Amino acid sequence: MSFEAKRCGVHFDPPSIILVYIHSDTKKVRKRIIPVRNFSKYSDCSMAAERLKNHPRHRDYLDQVPQSQLEKLHVILRDHMQGYTMEHSLASFRLDPDEDLNKLDDEELARKKGQMDRLFERNRKRRDDPGFVYDLEVQFDRKAQEKCSWDDESDDGF
Amino acid sequence: MADDVGSITEVDQNKYDVDEQVKIICLGDSAVGKSKLMERFLMDEYRPQQLSTYALTLYKHTATVGNKTIVVDFWDTAGQERFQSMHPSYYHKAHACIMVFDVQRKITYKNLAAWHKELREYRPEIPCCVVANKIDADLKVTQRSFNFAKKHGLPFYFVSAADGTNVVKMFRDMIKRAVDYKQNPRDFMDEVMRELENFDLEKKEENSEADEDGLKAESPELD
């Protein structure tokens, strides 16, 4: 028996994680409502996500849902409990290439890093992947390179 | 000698004076991938030591350079970069520096100027390189030339911590340069330190010679 996760979201009241999935035996689309218990505006979202992911009654259903996504849904839920809007939560995940991330606190930075990690994991080559080369070297042709627009003559040191 | 810049109590920085030990530091903005690069290079060896009080992570690595075994301590920031300045002990006795930026974020490239300036205040001559990370996000960046490195005479690497491109090459080059530098320092302070050490040694030798002379003088003639 396996479940193909299609979508996973969050419901504020009562606090719950909603999973839409296809039952692989019956091919039927089902919706599962998973109540989020013992969770407050002070809770640790990463731990809560891990707990849910390993929950004996839900883990088979959540098998295909990355823990990072569950964590994100918990963050949105907790933001809501703290009185923030959904827009605020979503903006906190969004990557703005011009934003100075040095100015963020730990929690805000963790949200941005979480987004970056998605790309990292997508492109990641692991040791047991076929064709993995530990000391992969690639030469890039210096002569064919064009000047980078980031090197503005007026800037000091560039 | 009072050594208060090296006063991170959990790390004895005097060990970096030993020939087989080098210290390599990482610099760059938040979220440019400094730790990810370390993890990719070290793979299974990856066992960081977190010093959260100092917002610092240390990674130990053993390398072979020539026919010598070298113990490398990599110093990585753990949030200290947020203040866009590092504690002087971070630079203290460093033998090489890896400066990283994110090719997707211009601000991290522009901030290299400030990082490089601070580095050179503490370590005017140590080998340093510029690393353009996350090229897997958009390979087109490798068709562009980033002038900062050339302008400061620093080696430049296009790398990806995710797919591994040029990560190991960059680290191996830097370890070798750190060892070369250590054997042949160009920093004024390093030379002063060396002179002082030699001075101490000479003094000790003089003393021991004097003792020997004294002994000789007192020892009876045997033949």
TrEMBL record, chain A:
Q: What is its main location?
A: cytoplasm
Source species, domain of life:
Eukaryota
Cell location? Cytoplasm, Cytoskeleton, Cilium basal body; Cytoplasm, Cytoskeleton, Microtubule organizing center, Centrosome, Centriole; Cytoplasm, Cytoskeleton, Spindle pole
- Keyword Cytoplasm (UniProt): yes
Is RNA-binding given among the entry's keywords?
Answer: no
Which is one Gene Ontology cellular component term of this protein? centriole
Keywords per UniProt: Cell projection, Cilium, Cilium biogenesis/degradation, Cytoplasm, Cytoskeleton
Could you provide one GO biological process annotation from this protein's UniProt record? vesicle targeting, trans-Golgi to periciliary membrane compartment
Give the PANTHER family listed for this entry: CENTROSOMAL PROTEIN OF 19 KDA (PTHR31539:SF1), CENTROSOMAL PROTEIN OF 19K CEP19 (PTHR31539)
- Recorded family membership: Belongs to the CEP19 family.
Q: What is the protein name given in its UniProt record?
A: Centrosomal protein of 19 kDa
TrEMBL record, chain B:
Look up the record and give one Gene Ontology term from the biological process aspect.
cilium assembly
Report the CDD domains cross-referenced here.
Answer: RabL2
Domain of life of the organism encoding this protein: Eukaryota
Spell out the InterPro entries in the cross-references.
P-loop_NTPase, RabL2, Small_GTP-bd, Small_GTPase
Q: GO molecular-function annotation terms?
A: GTP binding; GTPase activity
Pfam families (UniProt xref): Ras (PF00071)
What are its GO cellular component terms? cilium
Q: What keywords sit in the KW lines?
A: GTP-binding, Nucleotide-binding
Name the segments for region: Disordered: 200-223
| SUPFAM superfamilies per record | P-loop containing nucleoside triphosphate hydrolases
Family classification:
Belongs to the small GTPase superfamily. Rab family.
Instruction: Please name the NCBIfam families in this protein's record.
Output: small_GTP
**Record's protein name:** RAB, member of RAS oncogene family-like 2
Q: Which organism is it from?
A: Kryptolebias marmoratus (Mangrove killifish)
